[in-house]
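User: Predict structure, ligand flavin mononucleotide.
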Amino acid sequence: MNKKKLGPLPMLWPHPTVLVGAEVDGRPDFAAVAWAGVVAGSPPCVAIGLQPHRYSLKGIYQNMTFSVNVPSRELVNETDYCGMVSGADTDKVKDCKFKVFYGTLKTAPLIEQCPINLECEAIHFLNLGSHILVVGKVVETHFSEDCLTDDRPDIAKVQPFTFGPGKYHAIGEAFAEAFKCGWEIKGKPKK
Ligand SMILES: Cc1cc2nc3c(=O)[nH]c(=O)nc-3n(C[C@H](O)[C@H](O)[C@H](O)COP(=O)(O)O)c2cc1C
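Assistant: Predicted complex:
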C-alpha cells in the first residue's frame, strides 16, 4: 500500500465541534472548539485545547469552571460564528440568540438550544505550546428530552457534526454493532 508522509500533524479525524462556554468578567461567552475529547470515565473528564489568548480561557481561569455544549446541525451558522469572532469584541449570546441557563455550577453558562450540555470544573491546565490543554471534570450532564429514544440518549436525534478542514461534516448512520461485530474475526470465546 502506498503511503504519503504528511509530516507531524494532529490529524485525529473526526474532530467533534462543540461550543465551550465560560463566564468572562461576569458575562457568558462561547467559543467554537474542535480540539476536544473524552479523556476519563471515572471521574468523567473531558479535555479541550485552547490557544492562550482566547477570551473564553480568561473566564475559565477566573472561575475554574466551563461548559461544553454539543450543537446539532441546525446550529452550524451560530457555531461557525462563535469560532470567528471574540467575546472580547461582541456579545455572542445576543448575536446568536442563545438562551443561556445555569445548572449546578453557577459560572458555567449552558446553551438551551444545544441538545447536550456538560458542566465542568477545570481541574488541570497543561501548556502544550500553541494550546493550553484544559481538563474538565464533568459534574452534570443536561440532555434534551426530545433527543431521547426509549429514555436513552440517541445520537441520531442529537445530530452532532464534525469539523474537517474547511467544512463541517454530518455524522453517518450506524453500521455495525459495537462490542459484537469484532467476534466475526474468530468467534466469541466460550468461557
Ligand atoms: C470549527 C472551529 C473550531 C475551532 N476550534 C478551536 C480549538 O479547538 N481551540 C481554539 O483555541 N480555538 C478554536 N477555534 C477558534 C475559536 O473558536 C475562535 O478564536 C473564537 O473567536 C474564540 O472566541 P473567544 O475569543 O470568545 O474565546 C475554532 C474555530 C472554529 C470555526
